[in-house]
Write a structure and sequence with these properties.
- This protein has about 170 residues and is an all-beta fold.
- About 0% of the residues lie in helices and about 45% in strands.
- The strands form two sheets. A six-stranded antiparallel beta sheet has the order 1-12-3-8-9-10, with no helix packed on it. A six-stranded antiparallel beta sheet has the order 2-11-4-5-6-7, with no helix packed on it.
Length: about 170
């Protein structure tokens, strides 16, 4: 791992130091309920970056710069129902192939590993913005004007891997 942390109150440098032009995988051990909301992971800043958060009802929100195929510097926002996994301890896995796509997966001992969202890139590689990362905490500079509140579920561990991990074969 490039980084492994179990305390989520501070901002730190992340994105494997490549300003969004590198592959990366983030693994977050967590539990949530359908009433939990807020920022789980934010990379970058208010303009360019990656935001992963929850909205009420167990819906995961992924918002990322440059993620609309064929369009430069646009933001794709996708909301995906994850309520089937509420109440089960598991791993939220965010895999980034910066030239192709971002994928989010959920893995737990009951349901196994399941892809929950995939967003295609246009290849302009600005997903990490300024490499400023926040895990579980919200600030006024989260990407794309998304929820600034801290995540109200439980995060226990964050791991950053310096490569894209293809989990589709699991």
């Amino acid at each position: 791992y490039l980084r492994e942390i179990t305390s989520f109150a501070s901002q730190f440098t992340s994105g494997a130091g490549g300003a969004g032009t590198v592959d990366a995988t983030f693994v977050i051990d967590m539990t949530f309920s359908t009433t939990d909301t807020g920022c789980i992971l934010d990379q970058g800043g208010s303009q360019d970056g990656l935001y992963v958060g929850m909205v009420s009802g167990g819906n995961l929100r992924l918002s990322v710069s440059g993620a609309v195929s064929g369009v430069s510097n646009e933001t794709s926002t996708t909301t995906t129902d994850m309520s089937a996994y509420a109440g089960v301890a598991g791993q939220l896995i965010v895999t980034i192939d910066y030239q192709n796509h971002i994928q989010c997966w959920w893995n737990d001992s009951t349901n196994g590993i399941n892809q929950i969202v995939s967003v295609d890139f246009n290849g302009n590689g600005d997903w990490a913005g300024g490499n400023a990362a926040k895990v579980g905490s919200g600030t006024s500079s989260v990407h794309g004007g998304q929820s600034q509140s801290a995540f109200t579920g439980t995060l226990t561990r964050y791991r950053e891997i310096t490569t894209y991990v293809d989990t589709s074969t699991f």
